[in-house]
Design goal:
Number of strands: 13
Number of domains: 2
Order of helices and strands: HEEEEEEEEEEEEEHHHH
Strand content: 25-35%
Distance between the termini: 57 Å
Radius of gyration: 20 Å
Largest sheet: 11 strands, antiparallel
Strand order of the largest sheet: 1-5-4-3-2-6-7-8-9-12-13
Length: 230
């Protein structure tokens, strides 16, 4: 069994580079049935939009599956179905296939520089959530896409929405939805709350649009606000 990236992958590797990746993977993992274990993936209504995180292109990511670490393997994350998919090629036919990795066995995965783990968000079954951590505090991000009906006769009857994110603060296992500055500040007591408010104002941090880097720096400040202000 061989694993490869699409030739239109986001990193723009040449055919020779892709072949080297194939050979390295096969040499390392062989026919790895721990990794190649799941159900066939089906993509619905793909002609006008896509359900994936950031891009519909398969690209290299990392997966921790049943405690085994896999690096630089071809994956993508379907936000609508909430599944992690793996691209592989059947060596004896050359056919490209896509596999849904069993969520129960996926301990963690990384894609586009983001780290995801299984999370139980309030009122939902366990699903994937992006993790941004600094010391004892952690942001958990729930990424979503919806499927909406389209009345256009020239398109498929449904379209996927733009991706959206919902931010939660995990404080020692207590999960709080923080969609605004005020809801975030409510998670803290004075005098820390005042110092954090001042920091967010000075750094112009708007939670709905903050980058991963800004969120990580905010958590670092929140862990020790009095020390950071010295």
């Amino acid at each position: 069994m061989q694993l490869v990236w699409s030739f239109t992958n986001s990193l723009g590797q040449t055919a020779e580079e892709l072949q080297q990746v194939e050979e390295r993977f096969d040499h390392t993992y062989g026919s790895d049935y721990n990794l190649l274990n799941g159900r066939q993936y089906h993509l619905y209504y793909s002609s006008t939009s896509h359900p994936f995180l950031n891009s519909d292109q398969i690209r290299p990511g990392g997966v921790v599956l049943n405690g085994v670490v896999y690096k630089d393997i071809p994956i993508n994350y379907d936000l609508y179905q909430q599944v992690l998919i793996l691209q592989y090629i059947v060596s004896h036919t050359g056919e490209t296939r896509y596999l849904v990795l069993n969520r129960e066995f996926v301990d963690e995965f990384s894609l586009d520089g983001k780290i995801f783990r299984k999370v139980s968000f309030p009122g939902e079954k366990a699903r994937y959530g992006q993790v941004i951590r600094a010391d004892s505090l952690c942001f958990l991000i729930r990424w979503n896409k919806n499927m909406n009906f389209s009345a256009s006769v020239n398109e498929t009857p449904y379209r996927y929405s733009d991706q959206s994110r919902h931010l939660f603060l995990d404080d020692s296992g207590s999960l709080h939805k923080v969609g605004s500055r005020s809801s975030f500040l409510d998670c803290f007591e004075d005098p820390h709350r005042t110092l954090i408010r001042q920091y967010m104002k000075e750094e112009r941090i708007r939670l709905r649009h903050a980058s991963d880097f800004q969120l990580e720096k905010l958590l670092e400040f929140c862990n020790h606000p009095e020390e950071e202000k010295r």
